[in-house]
Amino acid sequence: VVGPLARSAVAAVASSNVVTKPTVALNHPQIDRPLPAQMLVIGLSLEEEARQVADWAAQEQPGGRALVLGGSAAWQQRVVGAFTSHWARLGRNNATVDLPVLDGYVDANALSDLRKRLEIDRPDLVFAALDASQLRQVRSAIGTSLPTYGVSAANPGRSASSAGGWPELDGVRMLDLPWTIQPEHPQVMVYPRPVDADTLDMQRLYALGIDAFRVAREVAQHPGSGFELDGVTGRLSVRMNNGAYAVKRQEAAAVYRDGLGFEAVATRP
Q1: According to a count of CB atoms within 10 Å of the terminal CB, is the N or C end of the chain lower?
Q2: What is the span of the domain harbouring residue 73?
């Protein structure tokens, strides 16, 4: 079985007793109980991206102190929580600033306060739980010299090229799917591109469908066995732990280069 896609629907299935055969779920359920043994959750997760970014930043900035920037949106709060919790487990320190955002615009007074704060207390790196437009505004205000990390929400996609470039994002380190930031990767090039998926979110959903098919095929051909896939959504590792499936995805790390696209970065898992 492949699906469902909606988080609430996955939660309903996971909380029932109907999962009696391998089920490839396309989202992460929010439930207070273990997943059914036959359920493989391969949905994309900003929280998992944040934890992987924390590992990456810790590798590049040993002993570094992070400034974590977020907002009031639910996804931003989840990403900030995932990063700061994992950062603390790595033995690192951070400060957190929530930036007021209205209609896509970061509050000018908050940006001014942030700039003054950095003049007094400068961190070693910035983790931004912001979308590309918000991060662009922040870096316009504070400059681009601080090493800055983000999740896939920071990917400007076609917005940057259609606007003549976003130099403010140059040098930002981020995670995203190979499908979106490594189009020339051999495992990506073998699949046709959809003609009607204009947004990055639709591109990611399309890529998730490709990997869902590949995972389902592996499970059908080798039931009860672990395997690895070099997928278009990342490196997928599927293991059997005490008779239950466990799935881990390592997404692609890259540095945004304005006018050039993305420069791949090798990170230790």
Answers
A1: C
A2: 47-182+252-260
